[in-house]
Amino acid sequence: METLYHQTNKQIHDVQSQMGRLETTDRESVHLFENELQARIDQIFNQLERLEILASKEPPNRRQNAKLRVDQLKYDVQHLQTALGNFQHRRYAREVQEKEREELLSRSFTTNDADTSIPIDETLQFNTNLYNAHRRVDDLLGSGSSILNGLRDQRSTLKGTHKKMLDVANMLGLSNTVMRLIEKRAVQDKFIMMAGMLATCLVMFLVVKYLS
Question: Measuring CA to CA, which residue among 13, 142, 147, 25 is closest to residue 80?
Fold first, then answer.
């Protein structure tokens, strides 16, 4: 498992370093570069499935830690997938806007053309709808990112709570041990007190009998 884990982690870092090249890649090659990155991300997802199986087969004392490490890799690669999807969405929106602009500029109108306002209105409406759709997608992605951050915070909180519960359990275990010792000492003191009372009574009986 360790070999596959380190190999997958290295591939994630490689994809992260290459994501910055998307903005500088020319338009003719950007599609091929996107496909290459998507193929590498798909390969990482496949390796994560194998890692999940291997983590479930780890010894009980190491299984939880192994699953947490795999979950962290899953979070990282999902972030890469989201970033690639955002770039593709922005690129597609730019291409559509440029195409619409070129069609609008290449259209020839006359002063008496009654249909002049119709294509312009349709283009403005289309751009408005496209902008609104883009904003809604950004809102959804922002909400998804907030949810993921919330889940990570909850995981940290649960880990802290678990540790506190273990500390309390250990403290209770110590308290139970102390209570058992106290109860044992109390029983011993009870027998000692009874033996002392019997010895005192015996001495008093012998003294009275001797004096009489």
Answer: 13
**Segment 170-179 long-range contacts (CB within 8 Å, at least 24 positions apart):** none
Please state, in angstroms and rounded to a whole number, the distance separating the CA atoms of residues 99 and 93: 10
SS3 assignment for the chain: CHHHHHHHHHHHHHHHHHHCCCCCCCHHHHHHHHHHHHHHHHHHHHHHHHHHHHHHCCCHHHHHHHHHHHHHHHHHHHHHHHHHHHHHHHHHHHHHHHHHHHHHHHCCCCCCCCCCHHHHHHHHHHHHHHHHHHHHHHHHHHHHHHHHHHHHHHHHHHHHHHHHHHHHHHHHHHHHHHHHHHHHHHHHHHHHHHHHHHHHHHHHHHHHHHHC
3-state secondary structure 27-70: HHHHHHHHHHHHHHHHHHHHHHHHHHHHHHCCCHHHHHHHHHHH
What pTM, to 2 d.p., does this model score? 0.47
| Mean pLDDT of successive 10-residue stretches along the chain, which has 212 residues | 86 87 80 88 90 86 86 88 87 83 71 51 66 66 64 65 61 59 73 78 73 63
